[in-house]
Write a structure and sequence with these properties.
By secondary structure, the protein is mostly helical. It contains ten helices and no strands.
């Protein structure tokens, strides 16, 4: 039963993240891969234009797939991460305890946390890919067909593997550097933002591939174009604003649900 905790707490994290952060995610995606006007606009102009034209529902473009997908793939990332971390730690005699400083890479990087986070990211990517495709197409107002739902899945999985690995690694850094650790809100906001900064160009490419507005181009050609045009970090401001609010609130909910479930299991 203890393995269920990560999945359920992760689901609560995902649902909260969508409710709180989706409007800014829509603005971010349209800036990255929308029509010509959105590609030229800034966060305020793109958000204002969408709000005036469609109201609050326009900011939640993607509908039901957003809530289902957001809940499921974040459940997968935390659940798989927990299983992988417990699995690799169980191979040591003092299992479940973080490895000592002398065994860490450069004295600070916990290879067990890195491995588990990478596994969690892959788990997220496998679940997220079709939901993310539908979400992006609806955000940029582009039609789609069922046979295309795994378009861009490879770059989604690749992005997520490094994104969640970075997120868990930064959380581990915070636990080492801040006595008593960060508050749940600050942990979610700061560590998520650092993780997004680490992989942001991959997010831009993912959005472009899934949007349907950049046909017959692969990840490497798009990265090269973004580098040449100085747009590797396109949409970063609304992305980090969304990440701060959504991940901060979501980590608060995750921590409380996790504590409640662990308490119930101990009875």
């Amino acid at each position: 039963m203890e393995h269920i905790v990560g999945f359920v707490a992760g689901a609560s994290y995902g649902f909260t993240s969508v409710v709180v952060g989706q409007p800014l995610d829509t603005v971010k995606t349209r800036m990255q891969a929308g029509d010509a006007k959105a590609l030229r606009g800034n966060m305020v102009s793109v958000g204002r234009e969408l709000l005036v034209r469609e109201g609050i529902t326009g900011l939640y473009r993607g509908g039901l797939p957003l809530f289902i997908g957001g809940t499921l793939f974040r459940s997968a990332q935390f659940g798989v991460n927990d299983i992988a971390l417990k699995g690799i730690r169980s191979t040591r005699s003092n299992s479940m305890e973080p490895i000592a400083a002398e065994s860490r890479i450069f004295g600070i990087l916990d290879y067990e946390v890195i491995f588990a986070g990478f596994c969690g990211g892959i788990g997220r990517g496998l679940v997220e890919a079709p939901f993310e495709f539908i979400k992006v197409r609806r955000q940029v107002e582009k039609s789609w067909k069922l046979r295309d739902i795994y378009k861009g899945s490879s770059v989604t999985i690749f992005r997520n593997a490094f994104l969640f690995m970075s997120f868990m690694t930064y959380i581990d850094f915070g636990n080492q550097l801040v006595p008593g650790g960060l508050t749940p809100f600050m942990k979610g906001a700061i560590c998520a933002n650092l993780a997004w900064l680490t992989v942001w160009p991959l997010d831009v490419v993912k959005s472009q591939i899934q949007s349907g507005n950049f046909q017959n181009q692969n990840m490497f050609s798009l990265l090269r174009q973004l580098h040449q045009t100085g747009k590797l970090y396109r949409g970063l401001l609304p992305g980090l604003a969304r990440s701060s609010i959504a991940n901060g609130c979501s980590m608060e909910v995750y921590t409380r649900v996790q504590a409640m479930m662990n308490k119930q299991l101990q009875k």
